[in-house]
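WARN retry 2 of 3 for item q-0093 after timeout on previous attempt; input resubmitted unchanged.
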Amino acid sequence: MGDPQTWLLVGFAGVIGGLLALDLGVFHRHAHAVTTREALIWSGVWISCAMAFNLTLVPWMGLDPALLFLTGYLIELSLSVDNLFVFLMLFTQFGIPPAYQHRVLFWGVLGAIVLRIIMITAGGALVAQFHWILYLFGAFLAVTGAKMLVAREAEDASPADHPAIRWLRRRLPVTDELHGGRFLVRVNGRRMVTPLFVVLISVEVADVMFAVDSVPAIFAITTDPFILVTSNLFAIMGLRSMYFALCGLSQRLRYLKYGLAVVLMFIGVKILLAAVYPIPTVVALGVTAAILTVTVVASLIGTREKVRNEG
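OK item q-0093 returned
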């Protein structure tokens, strides 16, 4: 029957490819604003697929790999939530109508998949060759989490101001207005990019910026390339739907940033203590879930009065 991981990878690729084809080729063939109901349905689809894959790992690979996948998936999904607010900021800055936002995120996610695979592969090769790099990852995550915990909102940098985006806008001819859902157009015989293309590159830059935190974080859970890639990509695939489902709640999740900072610090400490006191996967999963739950509940309670006044 061959290596179980080979068959699981084939099934994983088939599910991802099939759902992506349905997503863009059938359900979003024509540009339209994604409703909250539609976003919730697709979020449920992606989460259900991830959980079904997780359960499949138990008979094929055992309970421990399944727990590692679930922990990695939860960590990557929670850290990726921060991306959603950056997406909202980018679409607002560039004035992208809701009807075209899904198209940008679809191609942005495909690019993110390639970038994540490259980063995970490179990170895995470094860890295999120099195991002590894991401790650098741990220190980096702990410091990053601490900085997030004390940083003010005004200190957050926008990918639109990133040097790569400024360079792109200086080098490429950009149209003054959108041309439907097109990234490239020809104006007076001259090939030009649209603001939609600039936003797409901004989304990719944002993913790289966040991957610097999230990719080292998952190495705290496992160094198994199979678990690393599948948990990471399942988390990324659900990002688009989560964006449309949660963008209306962006003002209510005021404490989420602090919860994510604590998660990063916990993961960093987990790596640094690995040689002295290895924290079990079940404990790491429980602590991460508890931090995120408390953060979300506190955010919703803390903003309840504001919502009532605005209502």
